[in-house]
Amino acid sequence: MLSALEPRGRIMDVIASLQSAIEIAGKLRALSKKIEDADFKMLVADLSVELADAKLETANLKIALAEALEENESQKKIINQRSSQAPKLSDGAYAFDGEDGLFCTGCFDTKSLKVRVSPLSGAFRTFGKWSCPSCNATLG
Length: 140
Known about the structure:
The chain is mainly alpha-helical. Helix content is 60%, strand content 9%.
């Protein structure tokens, strides 16, 4: 399995290689001024454009990699939170060790949010025991 630093290192190597190639293209461009061959000058210009495009695309890939790594870390945190804070079903809602009250099952399952439920009173108890103030679900 690759560590998170290896792709970054590879991208940095590619960027360094592209930068070196761009510098070489610049030297070729300077040399082409001394040479009167139009085909050579056109090839050097094309090379410069292609290298600039490659450098830009590499920068875009670096940004995409950073976003993917950030999303990966976020998902890892959610997984760790869920495994360390496994809820128990109590009276149609979730109960967590060390926390008072009951919490909405829907909000926790879909958004990983702990939303405390409110008891229903009077005629509303026909539909359930608890109401979620966030998603308006009736529980129990």
